[in-house]
Amino acid sequence: MIQSDYLDIRYDGRLPLLVYSELGWEVERETSAVELLRGFDTMLAAGRGPFDMSYLKDRNRGMIMLLLDKVEATGDPKYVPLLEVWEQIDYKKVRARVRQVIQHLSQSAP
User: Fold this and answer.
1) Residue 18 domain-assigned?
2) Is the residue at 65 inside a domain?
3) How many domains does the chain have?
């Protein structure tokens, strides 16, 4: 993985740390966003509300924005209840993007 440039070694004092390289993070960010979207589907299928979306707070902003892009691209308003809960707990920039996605999905509703 290091030779293929997916991982790097960084040092924290004397301790070596294994971290994603730029290329590795691109792959992992995409994978994580897809997994989170699948998790949304699982939560909705289980139908157990109220939903706890606090696990998304303090995540990598680029990955969160990619996730929101993916939710928006579905055009499926089924995600709106999750997004409404999420919007209440996250930071200002994320809340603004969540609100945009909610509006887009609400307009897509038949």
Assistant:
1) no
2) yes
3) 1
Task: Please give the C-alpha separations between residue 65 and each of 4, 23, 61, 87, in angstroms, as whole numbers.
Answer: 27, 18, 6, 13
The helix (H) or strand (E) run that includes residue 12 is strand 7-12
Closest CA to 85 of 72, 71, 99: 99
Residue 79 lies in a domain: yes
Q: Is residue 59 part of a domain?
A: yes
Summarised one tens digit per residue, pLDDT across range 31-46 is 999 999 999 999 999 9
**To which residue do tokens 């307009």 refer?**
107
Per the structure, the complete domain to which residue 81 belongs is given by 28-108
pTM score over 0.85:
yes
The average confidence (pLDDT) of the chain is 94
| Residues 57/87, Cβ–Cβ less than 8 Å | no
